[in-house]
């Protein structure tokens, strides 16, 4: 009989029985959706990014699926900070980490939410979203290195839980160095690479129209198309960041092979977004099974056996 493999991982001392869980975005807005993740094989429950107040988000249609992925301009529809804080005690029933994503509309909102999270024992970690491309008039903080530094400086005066940031994708090599120089100055638990690629445009040539309503059709691109960009970001930050900052891969994961590639580039855990939206919670068990089979074939007993060990040709 083949030896069992373990998909367990740990992020900043928080143990996950599976390295696969949901991306903050699809199907994690309501308590019922979060319960479904809790009842699945996902290794953690990650909430929709909370703003201080409840938000309806952008006008619909605001999500569109294509054969290669998706475009969205949701605009952070969410139930508001208090709702996701209250959910934490309900999440206890699932015996897996509950991670709260926050995305304040201002630095002050982020600081206020971080202060309110101090000492919340049912919350395993905070993912601070620096990269939503969909709120009209609000640039992505992660593309402004000085703003990112200013925000982290304030946040780390108050944070008491493990805190990570969700980054936008970077494309230019000097930008990786510049952002890494900022991130390495703070005791981050993790960085999540990457949010959707903003701002793309999908059109329907038949109707000669855009496919989503907000922002004249512009929105964040997810799915197969973004995997090479996501892998590049995971790899670059894995090599540039302090070794105690874990990398969480996100982007283009729809199979065990995709998750394997993220881990090979250095990811300690892998989030699933577009494919979760498409398939529902069974994606966590299916992708776990596929990843386990690949590991078994290659003789890897656990993810640390191959994590970050990508070979180069030079
Ligand atoms: C959204 O709600 O617009 C998507 C969340 C994100 O991209 O951060």
What labels would you give this structure?
FMN, 314 residues, alpha/beta, 16 strands, oxidoreductase, TIM Barrel, four-stranded antiparallel sheet, Dihydroorotate_DH_1, Dihydroorotate_DH_CS, 31% helix, binds succinic acid, EC 1.3.-.-
Largest sheet: 8 strands, parallel
Strand residues, percent: 15-25%
First-last Cα distance: 38 Å
Cofactors and ligands: succinic acid
Q: Element order, helices and strands?
A: EEEHEEEHEHEHEHEEEEEHEHEHH
CATH class: Alpha Beta
| Structural class determined from secondary elements | alpha/beta
Here the CATH topology equals TIM Barrel
Q: Please give the domain count.
A: 1
Helix content: 25-40%
Radius of gyration: 18 Å
Extract low-pLDDT stretches. none
Q: Widest sheet: strand order? A: 3-16-15-10-9-8-7-4
Average pLDDT works out at: 97
What's the number of helices? 9
Overall strand count: 16
Shape: globular
Classified in CATH, the superfamily is Aldolase class I
Brief characterization of the structure:
Helices cover 31% and strands 20% of the residues.
Describe the protein in words.
- The chain is α/β, with parallel strands linked by helices and 314 residues long.
- The chain has one domain: Alpha-Beta Barrel (TIM Barrel), CATH 3.20.20.70.
- The chain is built from 9 helices and 16 strands.
- The strands form 4 sheets. Strands 3-16-15-10-9-8-7-4 form an 8-stranded parallel beta sheet.
- The structure holds succinic acid (SIN).
- The site of succinic acid has 13 residues, from loops.
- The site of succinic acid (SIN) has 13 residues, from loops.
- Catalyzes the conversion of dihydroorotate to orotate.
């Amino acid at each position: 009989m083949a030896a069992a493999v373990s998909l367990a991982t740990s992020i900043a001392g928080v143990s996950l029985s599976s390295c696969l869980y949901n991306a903050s975005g699809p199907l994690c807005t309501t308590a019922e959706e979060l319960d479904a993740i809790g009842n699945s094989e996902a290794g953690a429950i990650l909430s929709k990014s909370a703003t201080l107040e409840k938000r309806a988000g952008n006008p619909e249609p605001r999500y569109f699926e294509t054969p290669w992925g998706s475009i969205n301009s949701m605009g952070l529809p969410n139930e508001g900070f208090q709702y996701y804080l209250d959910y934490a005690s309900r999440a206890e029933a699932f015996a897996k980490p509950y991670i709260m994503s926050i995305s304040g509309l201002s630095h002050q909102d982020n600081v206020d939410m971080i202060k309110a999270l101090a000492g919340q024992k049912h919350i395993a970690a905070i993912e601070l979203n620096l990269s939503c491309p969909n709120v009209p008039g609000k640039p992505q903080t992660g593309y402004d290195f000085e703003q990112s530094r200013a925000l982290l400086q304030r946040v780390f005066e108050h944070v008491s839980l493990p805190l990570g940031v969700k980054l936008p994708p970077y494309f230019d090599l000097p930008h990786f160095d510049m952002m890494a120089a900022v991130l390495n100055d703070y005791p981050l638990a993790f960085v999540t690479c990457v949010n959707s690629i903003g701002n793309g445009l999908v059109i329907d040539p038949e109707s000669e129209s855009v496919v989503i309503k907000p922002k004249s059709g512009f929105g964040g691109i997810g799915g197969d198309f973004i995997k090479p960009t996501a892998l590049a970001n995971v790899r670059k930050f894995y090599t540039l960041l302090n070794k105690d900052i874990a990398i969480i891969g996100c982007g283009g994961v729809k199979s065990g092979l995709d998750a394997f590639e993220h881990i090979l580039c250095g990811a300690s855990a892998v989030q699933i977004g577009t494919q979760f939206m498409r398939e529902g919670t069974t994606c966590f068990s299916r992708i776990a099974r596929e990843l386990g089979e690949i590991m078994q074939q290659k003789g890897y007993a656990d993810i640390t056996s191959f994590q970050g060990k990508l070979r180069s040709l030079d």
